[in-house]
Structures are given as C-alpha cells and as structure tokens.
C-alpha cells in the first residue's frame, strides 16, 4: 500500500489546532516531531515519536499527515478521490486562515511518497490503558488487570477517528456529562470522532445519542466502539456532514429535541456553531463546550451569551477551558 505524506513545519504552540483543522479536512494519522521534553507518563501514553534526549526545545514542530494513494495515482480522501495539488492547495489555504489568529511559524509544506506504512497500527505501542477519574479506558489489544475487575470500563479504539480520552478537553467534557446526564437524556455530540463522549453519556444513563462528524472514518469507529462497549446500535445514530453549513444535516439532526449538546472542537468553530446549535436544544437543555484554549475563553463565552444561552459554569484543566450553558427560552 502506498501513502502520500504531507508534512508541515510549524510551532509547538500551533500543534493541536493544526492537527484538529487538518483532521476536519480529512487527513489522517498525525505524526508529531518536536523537541518538547516528554514526561514519563507521556512517554507511555501519547501517540508521538519517542525522541531520545536531545537539544533544548526550539519551539519548532513538524506535523505529518498521510493520505492513501490508489494504483492509478489518485488519492483517497473523505470517501472520494482527489490529487496531491488539490490537497496542497486546501492545506495552504487552511494554514493561511489559521495564521490570521495564530503564530504558525514558517507554515511550509512538503510532500513525499511512502510505501507499506502501517501507521494505523504502529501508534498502538504508545496507547495503553489509563484512568479518567474512576473510569478505566482500555484499548482492545490490552488485557484488564485483576485489580481493575468491577471498575467502570470504557473500551475505546480510536482507529482513524480522533478521540481517546487522553486530552484535557475530552476529560473536561466527560466530567460535565457525568454531572448533567439523566436517565432519559437525549444527547447530540457534534464532532463525535471515535464516539467517546456519546458512548460514555449512554453508559452514564442517557437514553439516546446522535453524533455528527465531518470525517466519514468516524462512522466505522463509532460502530466498533459501540459494539466493544455493548451499546445497542439503536441507541446511537451517526451522521456525516457539517451541521454549521449544511441545512440538510440540521434537518436530519432535528430541532428542539436535545437535552444536552456537547461539542469538543476548536474555539473558532464553536463561535460559528453556537448560534446554529441553539435551535437543536430543548428549552432547559444543556450546552457543553470544550476545545477552548484559555485565551479564547472570552470569545466563546460572548458567542454563547449572544445566542441567548445562560452560562452555568466554566471549568479548566491545564491550559484548556470548558464552558457549560443552558437554553432558558
């Protein structure tokens, strides 16, 4: 199997946002190379190249993304075919858009072809079972330890869809879901990725969940993860599409019918999403947002208030923020 690697030179500060933005375009398998010192826990847990001790962090990062190449030379992306020049143009446009509000450094792009790359499986050596509070998150290729029997267990294999529960933003959402999910909760998860948030909400007692994602890879990931966690397929519906820009997606999702909407995505996307998604919430419904870097908190909070929602609480972990609000009318 052949793959084309798109590699961007950027800053360590811009890593998370570029990865999320490129994933939204359909690129997969982010590989991170930087000189940021890794903690012992990160060396065990994170999906990154484990670098030996080296020079001091220079703030530069190289991010690589992989697209499958067909025998006829075309590239497979988002369930269709495209070419290298088209993807390069999209990536350059996205980087220039990010540059307007973020220091992305050089922002240069290079392209090369790679054969027999098993990146989908190679990262598994860095993903091991871990706890989010009292929830044990464990991938399918690891066995439960005897001392963990009887614990709340989430079986999650992200595959080609983003989301394992390791990131601060995901953990912030999980704690808010645990707080607000009730027995008959109907939930909408925007940008569901691997399905981790909606699956946990169902495990916490929610009645039904709908997930939306731009990436078609999310659908098989959600299906597999629901099966691994014994979630009945009739309780979780997945839709592929952009709920912000596609009226047909909003119609299919439904209006005024969700007790909770959760969105763990970038602050810039949340500001565009909020005035749209408010109509999906029931009156009295809860809106849980995360993916907000701390200096973007005010921007998201203003968008939430402008949409007529009442902010209930703001929680933080590391440099990330979660804003929880309520539709009051």
Which word captures the global form? Answer: globular
Beta fraction:
25-35%
CATH-defined fold name of the largest domain: Rossmann fold
Poorly predicted ranges (pLDDT <50, ≥5 residues)?
A: 40-54
Q: Provide a count of the helices.
A: 10
For CATH, the homologous superfamily of the largest domain is named as: Vaccinia Virus protein VP39
The CATH C-level class name of the largest domain:
Alpha Beta
Cα radius of gyration in angstroms: 20 Å
Element-by-element helix/strand order = EHEHEEEHEHEEEHEHEHEHEHEHEE
How many beta-strand segments?
Answer: 16
Category by helix and strand content: alpha/beta
The percent range for helix content is: 25-40%
Strand count, sense and barrel status of the largest sheet are: 7 strands, mixed
Annotated CATH architecture of the largest domain: 3-Layer(aba) Sandwich
From the structure above, extract its key features.
329 residues; alpha/beta; Alpha-Beta Plaits; Rossmann fold; seven-stranded mixed β-sheet
Describe the protein in words.
- By secondary structure, the protein is α/β, with parallel strands linked by helices.
- It has two domains: 122 residues, Alpha-Beta Plaits; 159 residues, Vaccinia Virus protein VP39 (Rossmann fold, 3-Layer(aba) Sandwich).
- It is 29% helix and 32% strand.
- The protein has ten helices and 16 strands.
- A seven-stranded mixed sheet has the order 12-11-10-13-14-16-15, sandwiched between helices. Strands 1, 2, 3, 4, 5 and 6 form a six-stranded antiparallel sheet that branches.
- Strand 3 and strand 4 form a beta hairpin.
- Helix 9 runs parallel beside helix 10.
- The longest helix is centred in the first third of the chain and has 16 residues.
- The radius of gyration is 20 Å and the shape is globular.
- The N and C termini lie far apart (54 Å).
């Amino acid at each position: 199997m052949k793959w084309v690697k798109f590699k961007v030179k950027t800053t360590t500060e811009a890593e998370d946002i570029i990865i999320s933005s490129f994933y939204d375009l359909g690129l997969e398998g982010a590989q991170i190379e930087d000189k940021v010192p890794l903690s012992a826990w990160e060396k065990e847990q994170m999906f990154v190249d484990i670098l030996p001790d080296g020079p001091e962090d220079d703030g530069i990062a190289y991010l690589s993304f992989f697209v499958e190449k067909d025998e006829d030379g075309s590239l497979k992306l988002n369930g269709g075919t495209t070419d290298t020049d088209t993807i390069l143009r999209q990536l350059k446009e996205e980087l220039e858009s990010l540059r307007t509000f973020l220091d992305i450094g050089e922002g240069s792009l290079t392209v090369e072809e790679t054969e027999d790359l098993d990146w989908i499986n190679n990262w598994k050596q860095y993903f091991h079972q871990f706890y989010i509070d009292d929830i044990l998150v464990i991938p399918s290729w690891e066995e439960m330890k005897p001392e963990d029997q009887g614990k709340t267990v989430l079986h999650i294999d992200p595959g080609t869809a983003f989301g394992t529960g390791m990131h601060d933003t995901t953990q912030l959402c999980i704690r808010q879901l645990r707080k607000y999910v009730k027995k008959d909760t109907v939930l909408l998860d925007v940008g569901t990725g691997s399905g981790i948030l909606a699956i946990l909400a169902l495990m916490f007692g929610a009645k039904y969940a709908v997930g939306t994602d731009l990436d078609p890879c999310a659908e098989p990931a959600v299906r597999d993860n629901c099966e691994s966690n014994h979630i009945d397929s009739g309780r979780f519906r997945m839709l592929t599409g952009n709920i912000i820009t596609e009226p047909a997606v909003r119609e299919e999702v439904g209006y005024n019918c969700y007790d909770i909407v959760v969105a763990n995505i970038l602050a810039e996307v949340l500001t565009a999403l909020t005035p749209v998604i408010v109509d999906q919430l029931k009156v009295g419904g809860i809106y849980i947002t995360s993916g907000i870097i701390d200096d973007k908190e005010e921007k998201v909070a203003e968008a939430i208030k402008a949409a007529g929602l009442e902010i209930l609480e703001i929680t933080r972990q590391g440099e990330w923020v979660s804003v929880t609000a309520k539709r009051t009318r």
